[in-house]
Amino acid sequence: MTGNWGRWGGDDQTGALNLVTPEVTRRAVGLVREGRTYSLAQPLGPSSPSPAHRPRPARFMNRDAGDYALGARAPGGFKFAEDTVQFPTHSGTHVDALSHAWAGVDLYNGHPEASTRSTRGAQRCGAEHLTPVVTRGVLVDLVTVTGGPLPPQAPVDAADLERGIVESGVSPEPGDAVLVRTGWWESHGSAQQYFADEPGITGAAAAWLAAQDVALVGSDNYAVEQQAAEPGFPAHLVLLHQHGVPLIENLDLAGFAAALGGVGRSTFLLLFAPLALVGSTGSPVTPVAVL
Question: Average model confidence (pLDDT) for the chain?
Answer without folding.
Answer: 95
